[in-house]
Specification:
It is a single chain. This protein has twelve helices and 13 strands. It is of the alpha+beta class. It has helices at about 5-25, 30-40, 80-90, 105-110, 120, 135, 145-155, 170-185, 190-200, 225-240, 250-255, 325-340, and strands at about 45-55, 55-65, 70-75, 165-170, 225, 240-245, 245, 265-270, 280, 285-290, 295-300, 305-310, 315-320. A seven-stranded antiparallel beta sheet has the order 2-1-13-12-11-10-9, sandwiched between helices. Helix 2 (about 30-40) runs antiparallel to helix 12 (about 325-340) and helix 7 (about 145-155) packs across helix 8 (about 170-185). The chain is globular and about 60 Å long.
Length: about 350
């Protein structure tokens, strides 16, 4: 059989395209294993890693005493969950990010805090004096419930800066936002989270309910979860807001969350794991495209959690450890991203 030159060129180009796609689609799991094995000491020897890609969890690594179902505190990884919960109310028209907190909690207006909006709460911009020192951010609350704690913010804490003028990392805004949701729904925050996100995302071992202490629920830092659970939430983000054919976050919500609002130089009082990062609405941004839209996002915590989602390539991973972890966990996370970099797809939208 004799092929015409033009047809031969077509076959050659098609073959090259297939080879490129096939090579592009492969994830170097051996490289991930090697990186994690070499990083055991940096992670405190006990760690678990899960990678989601192509519609399924396709790789896991369990080190030491941890496995994919080990329940661990995930600290500030709570904030991305809380933001997603807020956005479900926005999608239903029950809330606007531009709404004033005092519309739902009049005590804030009474004490000169009437200009704080929901968006200020989700971007560390309330202007309310915060906890001093990073470790104090993670101390147990002295309040019995979220209502009592947020009322204390309103009546006893001072305004340090005008709302919306200065990013200062703290728990206050997310806890206020969580309390607003309680007012709107007439349900406790942890129940709302279960009904709207955790149960539908099959996150059976994840909770904000504090069973060990007589403390208020913390939308900012109170989640306990497993790698197997949190990867479902990340998979939803990586899959454009959809999980198991159900839309949790629509395109407009994702656009709001993942638009870069703050550059590293504008971020104050941030823990070491997030130094040098960009910030959107309730989420840290590792990379962005030319349009200022996030391409890789994260929700790290001092508790050793590193949840990451690539919004262009559609993969996500979660790294959980048992120990407080600063630069060491960030260093390991960067190594893992380097292994995954050849899999990154361009994202221009």
């Amino acid at each position: 059989m004799t092929f015409k030159p033009a047809f031969c060129i077509y076959l050659l180009v098609a073959g090259c395209m297939f080879f490129h796609f096939h090579a592009f689609a492969q994830i170097d799991t051996a490289g991930l294993s090697s990186t994690l094995e070499r990083s055991k000491d940096k992670l405190g020897k006990d760690a678990v890693f899960l990678l989601y890609n192509g519609g399924k969890v396709m790789y896991k690594k369990e080190l030491g005493k941890l496995n994919t179902k080990s329940v661990l505190p995930a600290g500030a990884a709570s904030q991305l969950l809380t933001t997603a919960l807020v956005m479900t109310f926005v999608q239903e028209g029950k809330l606007s990010l531009d709404d004033k907190v005092s519309d739902y909690l009049p005590l804030f207006a009474k004490h000169g805090k009437g200009y704080i909006t929901i968006k200020h709460c989700l971007t560390h911009n309330t202007g309310i004096e915060a906890e001093r020192g990073v470790l104090k951010i993670f101390q147990n609350s002295k309040f019995k419930n979220l209502e009592e704690e947020v009322n204390d913010y309103a009546s006893k804490k001072e305004i340090e800066t005008n709302p919306g003028t200065q990013f200062k990392y703290n728990n206050i805004g997310f806890n206020i936002a969580g309390r607003v949701l309680e007012i709107i729904s007439k349900k406790p925050f942890d129940r709302l989270m279960q009904e709207r996100l955790l149960r539908p995302l099959v996150m059976r071992n994840t909770t904000f309910t504090n069973e060990n202490y007589n403390d208020a629920v913390s939308p900012a830092t109170g989640v306990t979860t497993t790698a197997a659970d949190y990867i479902n939430f990340l998979a939803m983000l990586a899959n454009k807001g959809t999980f198991n054919n159900k839309i949790f976050l629509d395109a407009s919500s994702l656009e709001v969350m993942f638009k870069t609002l703050y550059q590293p130089g504008e971020v104050m009082n941030a823990p070491k794991p997030v130094e040098g990062m960009l910030y959107g609405t309730g989420v840290w941004i590792l990379e962005e495209n030319a349009n200022g839209k996030a391409t890789i996002v994260a929700a790290p915590s001092l508790f050793g959690s590193w949840p990451v989602a690539n919004l262009c390539s559609g993969y996500a991973f979660v790294l959980l450890t048992k120990e407080l972890s600063n630069d060491t966990a960030k260093e390991v996370m960067n190594r893992l991203l380097s292994v995954l970099e050849p899999h990154n797809k361009p994202c221009t939208n």
